[in-house]
Design brief:
By secondary structure, the protein is of the alpha/beta class. The chain is 52% helix and 12% strand. A five-stranded parallel β-sheet has the order 2-3-1-4-5, with helices on both faces. It is globular, with a radius of gyration of 17 Å. It starts with a strand and ends in a 5-residue tail after the last helix. The structure holds cytidine-5'-diphosphate. The site of cytidine-5'-diphosphate (CDP) has 15 residues, from α2, α4 and α8.
């Protein structure tokens, strides 16, 4: 039995960074579930198809290779926006659900646990996770972080980085789409703890997140059957 930490939250709230740091701390495997939806979107765009064509998105979701999650093209603003459109399609979500549950149950590298970040990890993918966090930050702060991230990244598509106002508007549209979709909407699980990182730098946010999950994770690790 693996021990799961579920981290959900709004766009660009810093949940990926926190998830990676928590995974490193506990020696757990990390899965960025958003990258799966970004992979679907990238495939549709790369095939020259329209993101509005549901059947193309569903086919792409059924054929994606999760090994491609580190493709730098996934990080563009265009792919992020398209990912939130395809993520609202129930068949797309169904196609990537089992991969996430398998990752949680059998983390790669024989890790004792997994940290998975996304929008529906604590509510749908791993409702029995040992520890759950819901991360948020003020839209202005999130827009600034995303702008810096896009600036720092080499953009292979040669796309220009949108300005901060445009990024903030885009984040709010995506949050609204994520919160209002019929299947697996973004929401805080009843047993998740809210962490607002607006006034916290990465190290301070990590220290708080660790303090919130530590005893739950240690209790779950101690309860695992030996052997
Ligand atoms: O990095 P950012 O927070 O902007 O986005 P992401 O976590 O990479 O996710 C991209 C999009 O995939 C989100 O806007 C969501 O619409 C969708 N997503 C989802 O629906 N469910 C998840 N578990 C993860 C992402």
């Amino acid at each position: 039995m693996s021990v799961v930490i579920a981290i959900d939250g709004t766009s660009a709230c810093g949940k990926g960074t926190l998830a990676r740091k928590l995974a490193r701390h506990f020696g757990f495997a990390h899965l960025d579930s958003g990258a799966l939806y970004r992979l679907v979107a990238l495939r549709v765009i790369a095939d020259g198809s329209s993101i509005a064509r549901r059947e193309d998105a569903i086919r792409a979701a059924r054929e994606i290779d999760p090994l491609g999650v580190n493709d730098p093209r996934l990080r563009s603003a265009e792919v992020g926006e398209a990912a939130s459109v395809v993520a609202a399609i129930p068949e797309v979500r169904a196609a990537v659900l089992q991969f996430q549950r398998d990752f949680a149950a059998h983390p790669p590298g024989d890790a004792r646990g997994a940290v998975i970040d996304g929008r529906d990890i604590g509510t749908v993918i791993c409702p029995d996770a040992a520890a759950k966090l819901f991360i948020d930050a003020e839209p202005r702060v999130r827009a600034m972080r995303r702008w810096l991230e896009l600036q720092q990244r080499h953009d292979p598509a040669g796309l220009t980085v949108p300005n901060m106002k445009m990024i903030e508007a885009d984040l709010l549209v995506r949050d609204q789409r994520d919160r209002s979709r019929a299947v697996a909407p973004l929401r805080q699980a009843a047993d998740a703890v809210l962490l607002d990182t607006s006034d916290l730098d990465i190290e301070a946010a990590f220290a708080k997140a660790l303090a919130l999950v530590k005893s739950k994770v240690e209790t779950a690790l101690a309860a695992r059957p030996r052997g």
